Automatic annotation (TrEMBL):
Subunit structure: The Tat system comprises two distinct complexes: a TatABC complex, containing multiple copies of TatA, TatB and TatC subunits, and a separate TatA complex, containing only TatA subunits. Substrates initially bind to the TatABC complex, which probably triggers association of the separate TatA complex to form the active translocon.
Protein name, UniProt field: Sec-independent protein translocase protein TatB
Compartments it resides in: Cell membrane; Membrane
Membrane topology per record: Single-pass membrane protein
Function: Part of the twin-arginine translocation (Tat) system that transports large folded proteins containing a characteristic twin-arginine motif in their signal peptide across membranes. Together with TatC, TatB is part of a receptor directly interacting with Tat signal peptides. TatB may form an oligomeric binding site that transiently accommodates folded Tat precursor proteins before their translocation.
Highest rank taxon of the organism: Bacteria
Keywords from the UniProt entry: Cell inner membrane, Cell membrane, Membrane, Protein transport, Translocation, Transmembrane, Transmembrane helix, Transport
InterPro entries the UniProt entry points to: TatA/B/E (IPR003369), TatB (IPR018448)
Family matches, as PANTHER family: SEC-INDEPENDENT PROTEIN TRANSLOCASE PROTEIN TATA, CHLOROPLASTIC
Family indicated by similarity: Belongs to the TatB family.
């Protein structure tokens, strides 16, 4: 930035000592240091803001490119599905025209033959009890391995496992 060497710094210090005086020089140097620090922080903040705005512009461009790609994919999928539906419609129309009218074809075409009624299954709740905690380890394994399944107080545990001669 600035080409200031040691000799130039010494010259600036000597001139400042003569002009300002030895009593006020430390206070002025401290003030100059704080002002220089504020200026550096301000420049760093401006650089960071510029970088953020550039990144934001890049993200907007990337978002637009992704959205256009998604739109293109969506349009191609819609085109393929409409083409598939058209082919399916043509194939089923040909089959309907060739085959005699049966109850299944009447059901497909929407004509009610009267003998069959549409059965719609009703919703059945799974009947799970969500309040009961289901353990990952089976009870038979806990019993075989000797894992405690019930909480017991210290006194009850001592009484349970106390040898017979002390009871």
């Amino acid at each position: 930035m600035f080409d200031i060497g040691l000799s130039k710094m010494a010259l600036i210090g000597a001139v400042a000592l003569v002009v300002i005086g030895p009593e006020k020089l430390p206070r002025v140097a401290r003030m100059a240091g704080t002002m220089l620090g504020r200026a550096q922080r301000y420049v760093a903040d401006v650089k960071a803001e510029v970088n953020r705005s550039m990144e934001l512009d890049e993200l907007r461009k990337m978002k637009e490119s992704v959205e256009t790609a998604a739109r293109d994919v969506e349009q191609s999928i819609h085109a393929q599905t409409s083409q598939l539906e058209k082919g399916w419609e043509d194939a089923t129309r040909d089959l309907r025209d060739d085959a005699p009218m049966t109850s299944a074809s009447a059901f497909e075409s929407g004509v009610d033959s009267g003998s069959h009624s549409a059965v719609v299954p009703t919703y059945r709740h799974p009947r799970k009890n969500w309040r009961v905690k289901r353990a990952a380890v089976p009870q038979w394994y806990k019993a075989r391995a000797g894992v405690r399944t019930k909480a017991q107080s210290g006194a009850a545990r001592v009484a349970r496992f106390r040898p017979q001669k002390f009871r």
